[in-house]
Write a structure and sequence with these properties.
- The complex is a heterodimer of chains A (292) and B (550).
- By secondary structure, chain A is mainly alpha-helical.
- Chain A contains ten helices and four strands.
- In chain A, 64% of the residues lie in helices and 7% in strands.
- In chain A, the strands form two sheets. In chain A, strands 1-2 form a two-stranded antiparallel ribbon. A two-stranded antiparallel sheet of chain A has the order 3-4.
- In chain A, β1 and β2 form a beta hairpin.
- In chain A, α6 runs antiparallel to α7 and α7 crosses α8.
- Chain B is α/β, with parallel strands linked by helices.
- Chain B contains 22 helices and 19 strands.
- Chain B has a six-stranded mixed beta sheet, sandwiched between helices.
- In chain B, β16, α18 and β17 form a beta-alpha-beta unit.
- Classes of the chains: A mainly alpha (292), B alpha/beta (550).
Chain lengths: 292, 550
């Protein structure tokens, strides 16, 4: 079965946009996620990226990214609650534990973990939409002026996700075929194997790129500079979101402190950034288009 | 510059002088004192067992060794006048193309057209000339219908042809191929070899082809270079190679040569046509050879009860490029316990889909699968089963050891699976699928392999045949999807031939593998005797004076 993160060529505004415009647009969601700690803004960024995926016809990828992101967020919350004992509101005293020492679960540590997790989830949704909507061939061409001597760098940037996605599907399938006395596949083993395997395969892909002449440095008439009539809307949407986020930070928006006690203020600046993030998610929308 | 171009045109395709090479951290060198010169336009075959240095020599010729892999190198390599050790793969890409063993690692673009056009784009060709060259390369390889497809929707065989088209599209002076037919069905494999021969003759492209299935390509070659433990063991014409192999390494003999050796006939034949001509000369009384005929689907052999698996009217749909296709169409099949079946057919005929449906990975849209005792399936990439860093971590406990014992790997419990040889990794993957299912009721009714002989030499295939026979003796039904006709002849008692999602022939292996042309062994094609598919049977027939029928 085809991976939800695999690039799906289709005639839609985001897929037709130039590589730079698409990266600027989707990257603006990641910029906001890294700049802000307000749960409201982070939720809005995740919603905006999800909306972008749905309107671009990559809803399957966006939701798959969200599911993975939420799983990671939950893990971060649990780990943060167990290893961080800062915070005034103790919810649970678990006593002494090996390596961890005294374990007090505080509401503040849970909230701080949740914020980190939400940030990771929002970025993963944006990255999932990127992976499904931005043509890796065009990314490869766009990278050539900057990574012309390093096929490996280019292969890692443009191919690691598609290769890892294809490997993950095969590994899961093989995992279902293991005998009852074999050690089950397990998420940890799968993740380690995926990482090492994908790096190995990216090296193979890099070798192929070298053989095709990637390192020759010859100028060619390609379509890496191809623009689309949709570029402007993505540059404007991404630019507006990033500019609003930076301005908001400079003007003191994003009032969130986890320690020593929780402090969350939804002042007008935070609300404006949140609304902008959600609205930016509508940029790929095309009249009459169906989501996938 | 004109001098350089003239030198390239007249220079040998490949000139290797006292080449030695050791991979980083390797205990022993992969190549030692290799010297070789291929004149422009030579079609040369690179033979040798697994690990003998064939792939490394090809990688040295295209510049990946040492530029990409690192390691220690000495001696010299020139490709069409270019110093390969100094130039590197990018510059060498102008004069030589390389097709590696695994097609999945050779595609870097999203669509087939982009993949084939990429080398031209990187070489600076204009869009108009790129479009024409892509079209011509696609036509030459009979894949124009694939141009708009995404590469992740292609079968292994289709991918291999796309990779070859991408290597040929720049019209290089030398093309290097590392087992390019390992994923191709017999029809596509033969077509590829003769396509290479045609490109060699018409375009003057030099060819250096590493292969294990020598019977496919020996007749097309001008010259054979045999590697042995990193050194050149033999360098000469095809007939001389067969004479050398007869003494030095009989595992490299082709089936027809082995037939002649066993029957005491000389000279050894380089191919089917040669064998028939020699037979015609040495046995005048045997008359002319009969033209081969296609075998229709006949009555299947008698069934043993109880069946391991029964399939009734199985239909399976798969999505490809956003469209739904019927990949299996009304398959009926019954597999008895202990039965050994070769599942054959062209690339895309539905073999892997059938196995994955039987294993429960795919859901049929219609029809029924009844399985007694479940199924163990080893898919095409054994590495997908190996996810931990110690063999014992994959297979813990007594049952794990028992599974390792079954495949002869109980000595490897502390080894890293990545350090095992290709054959050992495959056996470990099989042990993982069989773990906890080795006794009584838990024994799988069906054990299936999907293309298990990719990259295997004959010695390793013989080990696999023994393993298959052992599993069948335990009581499991064996179904092996394979393109390797000679391997099928070695293990199968029954052959099921699929064509476009339907069973087109199902019967005794000797009958099916001697009745057709493409899905027939070399011995069957030489002798044309119904039921005679192995060198041993053929030699017995010849010695009994039956000979080819007129």
């Amino acid at each position: 079965m085809r991976s939800p993160f695999a690039y799906n060529p289709r005639s839609a505004p985001l897929q037709n946009a130039s590589t730079g415009a698409a990266v600027a647009y989707l990257g603006s969601f990641a910029i906001v996620a890294f700049l802000y700690s307000s749960p409201l803004v982070l939720a809005a960024v995740a919603a905006g990226a999800l909306l972008a995926g749905i309107t671009a016809g990559a809803g399957r990828a966006a939701f798959a990214g969200l599911r993975m992101g939420l799983g990671l967020a939950l893990l971060i919350v649990v780990v943060n609650a167990l290893v961080v004992d800062r915070g005034e509101t103790v919810l649970l005293r678990l006593g002494e534990a090996p390596l961890l020492g005294r374990v007090d679960v505080t509401a503040e540590a849970i909230a701080a973990g949740a914020v980190i997790g939400m940030r990771a989830a929002a970025v993963m949704v944006a990255f999932a939409v990127y992976s499904a909507c931005v043509d890796p061939d065009r990314v490869l061409r766009a990278l050539r002026p900057y990574a012309g001597r390093s096929a490996l760098t280019a292969a890692l940037i443009s191919r690691l996700v598609p290769v890892a996605a294809a490997d993950a599907a095969r590994l899961r399938e093989a995992g279902r075929l293991r005998g009852p006395a074999a050690e089950p596949l397990g998420r940890g083993a799968l993740a380690r194997r995926l990482l090492t395997g994908s790096l190995d395969r990216a090296v193979d892909v890099a070798a192929t790129l070298e053989l095709r002449g990637y390192g020759l440095g010859v100028r060619y008439e390609g379509d890496s500079r191809r623009t689309s009539r949709h570029d402007m809307r993505f540059i404007l949407a991404g630019g507006a979101l990033a500019a609003a986020a930076i301005a908001g930070r400079l003007l003191g928006a994003d009032v969130f402190h986890a320690y020593p006690s929780l402090e969350i203020v939804a002042e007008p600046g935070t609300l404006v950034i949140s609304a902008t993030a959600v609205a930016a998610g509508l940029a790929p929308w095309r009249k009459g288009a169906r989501g996938a | 510059m004109p001098d350089l171009l003239a030198k390239r045109r007249t220079a040998p395709s490949l000139s290797v002088t006292c080449l030695g090479y050791r991979y980083p951290n390797a205990e022993r060198p992969a190549l030692e004192d290799v010297s070789l010169e291929l004149a422009a336009g030579t079609f040369a075959l690179l033979a040798g067992r697994s690990g003998s240095g064939k792939s490394t020599l090809l990688r040295a010729a295209c510049g990946l060794v040492p530029h990409f892999h690192g390691g220690e190198v000495c001696g010299g390599v020139e490709v069409a006048g270019l110093d390969a050790l100094a130039a590197g793969p990018g510059e060498l890409a102008r004069v030589c193309g390389f097709v590696a063993q695994d097609p999945e690692t050779q595609v870097v673009s999203t669509t087939v057209a982009a993949e084939i056009g990429l080398p031209l784009e990187l070489h600076g060709d204009a869009p108009a000339s790129r479009a024409r060259a892509v079209e011509e390369a696609a036509l030459a390889l009979a894949i124009p219908h694939l141009l708009d497809r995404t590469v992740d929707s292609l079968s292994g065989g289709e991918l291999q042809r796309v990779a070859l088209a991408a290597a040929l599209v720049t019209r290089p002076q030398l093309i290097l191929l590392d087992e390019p037919t390992s994923q191709l069905d017999p029809v596509a494999g033969d077509e590829l070899i003769w396509l290479l021969r045609r490109l060699n003759e018409e375009w003057g492209v030099g060819v250096l082809l590493a292969e294990h299935r020598l019977e496919r390509c020996l007749a097309a070659a001008d010259r054979v270079v045999a590697m042995d433990s990193g050194r050149i063991g033999f360098d000469g014409d095809p007939r001389g190679f067969l004479e050398w192999a007869q003494e030095a390494d009989p595992a490299l003999e082709t089936p027809a040569a082995r037939l002649f050796t066993l029957a005491g006939l000389e000279p050894l034949p380089t191919g089917v046509r040669d064998a028939r001509a020699i037979l015609g000369r040495v046995s005048q009384g045997w008359g002319d050879l009969r033209s081969p005929k296609l075998v229709d689907a006949g009555a299947p052999p008698p069934r043993r009860d109880p069946p391991a698996a029964t399939v009734r009217n199985l239909w399976v749909e798969l999505e490809r490029d956003e469209a739904i296709h019927d990949v299996l169409r009304g398959i009926d099949l019954r597999v008895a316990r202990g039965e050994r079946i070769a599942l054959m057919g062209r690339n895309g005929a539905g073999k892997s889909t059938l196995l994955r449906t039987l294993a429960g990975i795919l859901e049929p849209v219609r029809g029924r699968v009844e399985m007694r005792g479940g199924m163990a399936l080893l898919t095409q990439n054994p590495g997908d089963y190996l996810v931990r860093e110690r063999v014992a971590e994959e297979l813990p406990g007594e049952e794990g050891i028992a599974a390792l014992r079954l495949v002869g790997l109980e000595h490897a419990v502390d080894r890293d699976p990545r350090d095992l040889s290709g054959g050992e990794r495959q056996r470990l993957a099989l042990a993982i699928t069989m773990a906890g299912r080795l006794e009584g009721e838990r024994l799988p009714g069906l054990v299936a392999f999907d293309e298990p002989t990719r990259g295997m030499d004959r010695a390793r295939k013989d080990v696999l045949v023994e393993l298959i026979e052992e599993l069948a003796a335990l009581g499991a039904g064996l179904v092996v999807a394979t393109h390797d006709v000679e391997f099928a002849a070695a293990f199968a008692e029954r052959v099921v031939l699929l064509g476009d999602g339907v069973v087109i022939a199902d019967g005794d292996a000797a009958e099916i593998l001697s009745g057709g042309w493409y899905f027939a062994t070399e011995v069957a094609r030489v002798l044309g005797l119904p039921g005679t598919i192995t060198a041993e049977d053929g030699a017995a027939a010849l010695l009994e004076g039956r000979g080819p029928r007129g």
